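User: Working on a comparison across species. This one is Adenylosuccinate synthetase from Cerrena zonata. Can you predict its structure so I can line it up against the others?
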Amino acid sequence: MKHSCLINGYDALNLTKLDILDDLEEIKIAVKYVVGNEELPGFPADLGELEKVEVVYTTLPGWKQSIASTRTFSDLPLNCQKYIEFIEEFLKVPVEWIGVGPGRESMIKK
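Assistant: Here's the predicted structure for Adenylosuccinate synthetase from Cerrena zonata:
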């Protein structure tokens, strides 16, 4: 996502399908890529380099409850809010819309 944000210059993000994370104990987010002792500037484009890459993750706690009926950001579980805020901080792009279920009514405006 970070590479896509840098290339496309997004003003905001629409974070969809957040509800599929409801049952996870923890959520791992890739935060950097390392080959040997060298940190890469982003996801490696070269397949040879990709074979050697070590992914560094940040692990956040899951929220272990359904968010499908949630309609406001403040009503989301605290760990879910922290996950969204981590994404915003890491990408330096605000999340404006949050999809919490399959229907049109399942979109939260942050």
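For your comparison, note: The radius of gyration is 16 Å.

User: Helpful, thanks.
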